Amino acid sequence: MMEFVEHRQVMVLGGGPAGFTAALYTARADLKPLLVTGMTLYGQASQTHLIENFPGFPKGVGGTELGQLIEEQARHFGAEVVFDVVTSVNLEQRPFEVCLSSGKYTADCLIICMGADSRRLDVPGEREFTGKGVSFCATCDGWFFKDKDIHIVGGGDSALEEALFLTRFARSVTIIHRRDALRAGAILENRARNNPKVKFLWNAVVKEILGSEKIEELLVEDTVTGEQKRISTEGVFVSIGHNPNTTLFEGQLKITPAGTLDVDRQLQTSVEGVFAAGEIADPYFKQVVTSAGMGAAAAISATKYLENLEK
Ligand code: NAP
Predict the structure, then answer these.
(1) pTM for this prediction
(2) Ligand 1, from 158, 200, 208: best to mutate by most atoms within 8 Å of Cβ?
(3) Any residues with CB less than 8 A from the CB of 91 and at least 6 apart, and which?
(4) I want to staple 262 with a disulfide (CB 3.0 to 4.6 A). Which of 53, 63, 178, 254 is the partner?
């Protein structure tokens, strides 16, 4: 049987910008929150080399650096941080039960900030060549592609930002996009179009990733003509969005058709006392600043909820 560790008024599940901001706000409300980081400390932000649109940093700030700063601020006011993963939750009983790898906690109130994970292409070869030429994180793996001709799949802000970052290392970066117009914003599009190392392959989808010891070719299909061809590559980055990490909550919390946790204006989920913030509950904005803002809002709601419990 799993060892019971302790009871908390508030637990924050997830250590990205939403989670650490929720921890900061609940710590300042003297609720002594315990934040569980999850596997990726500082969340998706940690995989961003430079965040240029977080207010207060006119020259940009590294994703990990920003995470460290918010963590320091939260700890300063009494937040506790545990480097562990949540393995299960029971929201049917009160206090709520939260199992981590290291033991079991109970909590009066939860703020779920578990973010979203990279979406996969789900094509043959993707799993086999992950780590052998297929990557989901330019900041993590870019260096391995020095002087190589590589590809990136996706047409959103992340794909373009990663493509531009990869030009520091690669000889060329070809963006494969399934349409002939980008989803990304104008600033990144202009930067990409003006970068001599960036090329575009429009109206194309990857059907298969091929190679032997490592990746060698992509089988791509023209989305207009249906024509298929093989193209050589020395690496492919997949940057086609993210899926909210809701698996642990299936059957316990209401989930929207977009796959996010369903929250009301106070960021409360379908269970009273369980709040959610950041990309796990945000199908629209998905910015570091909006995630941090949601973390603050959820923490304010959680504080009010606990005050009412005491009355
Ligand atoms: P996104 O905006 O959802 O873009 C995903 C891209 O992948 C789209 O171009 C989509 O094509 C393509 N795609 C999706 N599934 C695909 C599939 N199975 N095969 C091929 N292509 C596929 O995701 P994101 O780029 O990760 O951005 C997420 C959020 O973060 C957005 O709100 C974005 O604005 C924000 N963000 C902002 C910045 C910034 O402001 N600097 C940086 C990074 C991210 P379609 O266009 O055809 O749908």
Answers:
(1) 0.88
(2) 158
(3) 110, 249, 252, 253, 271, 274
(4) 254
